[in-house]
Amino acid sequence: MSSKDWLSQGTLVLASNNKGKIAEFEKLFAELALPVDVIPQGQLNIEDAIEDGLSFIENAIIKARHASRISGKPAIADDSGICVPVLGGAPGIYSARYAGEHGDDAANNAKLLENLKPLRKENQVIEGMFVCVLALVEHADDPLPQIFQGIWQGEVLEQARGENGFGYDPLFWLPELGISSAEMSKQDKNKISHRGQAMQLFKASLK
């Protein structure tokens, strides 16, 4: 439900086993200084949920309910990815498994570049956006999950740049900054990224 009752339970389960996401969330949650312990689901031996939704929102809710049901605790889940309009929004919700195997960043990046190659004209800008949806449930059957969404606009590069971040960060170009998101520090990235935006909305809900 849309309340702060979950804060009194002392624990919030982070419904993710993705190391890159967990690292970003740990920094973001540390800045919030919540009066609860935020525990990644892996520490509770919770495996990933089956993501069979058709949207970021559906999958985020599925993951949050799954973690909450097994742990008996409130849970927050992130579903995120990159959407490229000229590809009809792909990779979209399939971003993490775009090339087939879940979490193979190099293969996913390679497939995205391959699929864009015949569509990219000389000096053409290919727009892309990172999307993050957070879903918070107080319990597994919460009828009104709280939803927080962030969208980060940018462009898709023709080749990777940068060593930081994870996922599609090396291909995500920020023209206003003249760098890729993989060339940003975690701190700077968290200020403006899709995940950072969603977390700011989450933070605002606590006031």
UniProtKB/TrEMBL annotation:
One of its GO terms (molecular function) is nucleotide binding. InterPro entries: dITP/XTP_pyrophosphatase (IPR020922), ITPase-like_fam (IPR029001), RdgB/HAM1 (IPR002637). Binds 1 Mg(2+) ion per subunit. GO terms for biological process: nucleotide metabolic process; purine nucleoside triphosphate catabolic process. It comes from the Bacteria. It catalyses: XTP + H2O = XMP + diphosphate + H(+); dITP + H2O = dIMP + diphosphate + H(+); ITP + H2O = IMP + diphosphate + H(+). CDD domains: HAM1. Pfam families: Ham1p_like. Its EC number is 3.6.1.66. Keywords: Hydrolase, Magnesium, Metal-binding, Nucleotide metabolism, Nucleotide-binding. Substrate binds at S16, N17, N18, K19, G20, K21, S80, F166, G167, Y168, D169, K189, H194, R195. The active site is at D79. GO terms for cellular component: cytosol. Mg(2+) binds at D79. It is an enzyme of class 3 (hydrolase). Its cofactor is Mg(2+). Homodimer. PANTHER family: INOSINE TRIPHOSPHATE PYROPHOSPHATASE, INOSINE TRIPHOSPHATE PYROPHOSPHATASE/HAM1 PROTEIN. Pyrophosphatase that catalyzes the hydrolysis of nucleoside triphosphates to their monophosphate derivatives, with a high preference for the non-canonical purine nucleotides XTP (xanthosine triphosphate), dITP (deoxyinosine triphosphate) and ITP. Seems to function as a house-cleaning enzyme that removes non-canonical purine nucleotides from the nucleotide pool, thus preventing their incorporation into DNA/RNA and avoiding chromosomal lesions. Belongs to the HAM1 NTPase family. This is dITP/XTP pyrophosphatase.
